[in-house]
Amino acid sequence: MGEAPSAALPRVLLTGAAGGIGRCLHRAFAGRYPRLRLADRVPVTALHGSDEVLTGDLLDPSVAAAAVRDIDCIVHLAGIPKENTWEQILPNNIVATISLFEAARGAGVRRIVFASSNHAVGYHDAAHALGIEQPVRPDSRYGVSKVFGEALGRMYVDKYAMTVACLRIGSFRERPEDSRQLSTWIGHCDMAELARCAIEAPDYGFAIVYGVSANRRAKWASPDALRLGYRPAQDAEAWAAELEAIAPPPGDPAARFHGGAFCALEYLDPRGEGNKP
Ligand SMILES: NC(=O)c1ccc[n+]([C@@H]2O[C@H](COP(=O)([O-])OP(=O)(O)OC[C@H]3O[C@@H](n4cnc5c(N)ncnc54)[C@H](O)[C@@H]3O)[C@@H](O)[C@H]2O)c1
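^ thats the input. predicted complex w/ nicotinamide-adenine-dinucleotide below
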């Protein structure tokens, strides 16, 4: 992906650039955009001459303001990437996201790509395929924070005419690691391609796209992927023989719902069967 930068391409801010997905996108985008600003509360190492590094906590409005200055598109990855306490989720996933969106609006940034999650809809029954028309059904405090980010994005499109893509990322891994990930996996190349499409596609208003590879067993449909031009190329099926047996027992909440193990955490079965602490 390391083509020469073009004036037609946007100036991009990556938040959470020190994290797993951030490092993947940083490598993929190095040298591609006229500006690639890498923001995180832990230091990031620059890879290319057009990289800019900003270290700070996005909860701080002055950090958010500095991060978005002279930027055209934000890819917002920063946050707690799994279930945690409200003491962690509220500031890092909700308040910091508000801080960033508000700074973006104030600075005239036109586009935000938000790292949402399949856990925004995790408590839907895994026996049925999911699109984007079903109501949200978060499976965790973490999932609620992603629903919040999606709602914030929707409002910024409707009220402020911005373009916002919410990527409901599945399981970002080098390779799939269990039977669930035969459907939910997104490989590194596809993750970078999905983010590139969301950054570079002509204005699309509001979009929700599942962040998954072209897995033969995928259960999530993304009509908006076409509008963004996302055509995944990787497929978890290559690991099927090895991974099929790595699965929770049938009836376990981790098997019954789209969100997998997140659904088993603190789960009290409303039917009174198989309660888990
Ligand atoms: N990895 C996955 O499979 C997956 C799946 C679905 C969604 N996501 C989402 O994608 C995003 C990136 O995930 P990841 O796996 O790279 O996570 P990660 O934990 O590796 O990276 C997140 C980064 O955000 C930074 N950060 C957290 N709070 C911050 C704050 N207040 N200010 C500044 N920086 C802050 C952290 O320092 C970290 O480097 C997250 O929002 C996550 O919820 C990831």
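The pocket of nicotinamide-adenine-dinucleotide is lined by residues 16, 18-22, 40-42, 57-59, 77-79, 81, 92, 96, 115, 117, 169, 171-172 (CB under 6 Å).
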